[in-house]
Automatic annotation (TrEMBL), chains A, B:
Domain HTH tetR-type: 3-63
Gene3D superfamilies in UniProt: Tetracycline Repressor, domain 2
Residue ranges of DNA binding: 26-45
Superkingdom, taxonomy of origin: Bacteria
Keywords (A to Z) from UniProt: DNA-binding, Transcription, Transcription regulation
Name of the protein: TetR/AcrR family transcriptional regulator
InterPro entries listed in its UniProt record: Homeodomain-like_sf, HTH_TetR, Tet_transcr_reg_TetR-rel_C_sf
GO MF terms, alphabetically ordered: DNA binding
Length: 186, 186
DNA sequence: CAACGGCTATCTGTCGTCAGGTAGATAAAA
DNA sequence: TTTTATCTACCTGACGACAGATAGCCGTTG
């Protein structure tokens, strides 16, 4: 099946990018992971930039759905936030990987523009969701919620970056706990 | 002079790594920037890893001295913190560059071990300094200050990462302001 | 037959690295 | 004072590995 191989390419590529970054992603290694030849990847993705953009787009769509699902379930603010921060912890637990958007964000200056745009999209999606969660508490403070959402997103990305740097998930957990103690995160 | 060329190599390399990352640093491009041949860089730095480690070490030493100087001047907590966050803002203002340790931290999984170690050192140095600043307020709460220091460091790195991703310093400034409003940063 | 999903083979370019050479300065030896 | 030796600060040129990309072939499936 077409979708099958394409999916396997994207899945393997995502894991590599979250581990080694966009620059660390090579068609040859990727092909080995999937079990095909590197030239075959070009059948699905004409260029590396196209693959990168597709990766980021899919990542946003996936977590967009996951987060949306939480709201649909009618979870309260604290539970939403706890699950949110757990997603990033799980990523670290999977071989010290970084959020795809965090990794690509750092590499921003060497990314093709099509990839850059998708990475920004992920951040905006996160901020929008966070703002909606915060709105459960302060429905009438729209602007404040948006600022707070952005700060939370940045702080969580930072916590993941530092924990990734030290290859130690407990660093992430401790920092998140401190954010909560400071009421940055509800 | 020897020190002169070596310094110019390190300075150019630092700027490139903060822009494009360790993976984006090539001996040939670096040589062009400095005005020598790529093989000559090996005269000063046997391997790329050695150069990377020297870069990070120097970066830590430089900012360690800058921060130490603030304490010597007897500045108050708010002024120290304001100057601290301004350093990262200035880095962004210089062609959307990232803190060297933030960039290398993201690339952690593909760095030579010698470089990894130096990057961690930078973070520890920052946390120690922040904890000392916080101790001006709460001299008897050592452990709390250390946790708070780490959270501040992570949050600032995160703010810089997100602003870097969007190539917009005002995003950094806004997030830092929100941290302050939350009393995460004094 | 024709489209699909791969393949082989190859191109061009760049990477870090290294062996070996050289011009000039310094210094010790004759 | 001249010769010889060593060191500094580079350079030339090349190595093998690997990068993304492309042209064209071929068996399978509908």
């Amino acid at each position: 099946m077409t979708a099958d191989t394409k999916d396997r390419i994207m899945e393997a590529a995502r894991l590599t990018v979250q581990d080694l970054g966009y620059g660390g992603l090579s068609f040859r290694e990727l092909a080995k992971d999937v079990g095909i030849k590197s030239a075959s990847i070009h059948y699905y993705f004409a260029t590396k930039g196209e693959l990168g953009a597709a990766l980021a787009n899919r990542y946003t769509a996936h977590y967009g759905a996951v987060l949306e699902d939480m709201l649909t379930q009618g979870l309260d603010v604290e539970t939403c936030m706890a699950r949110y921060t757990e997603v990033f912890a799980d990523t670290l637990r999977a071989d010290n990987r970084l959020c795809l958007a965090g990794m690509l964000g750092a590499e921003r200056n060497q990314l093709p523009e099509e990839v850059q745009a998708e990475v920004v999209e992920y951040g905006i999606m996160n901020e929008r969701w966070l703002a909606r969660v915060l709105a459960m508490r302060n429905p009438d403070r729209h602007e404040e919620n948006e600022r707070q959402a952005r700060a939370i997103y940045a702080a969580v990305q930072g916590a993941q970056l530092i924990a990734h740097t030290r290859n130690d998930v407990s660093v992430y957990e401790e920092i998140i706990a401190t954010y909560r103690a400071n009421h940055l995160i509800p």
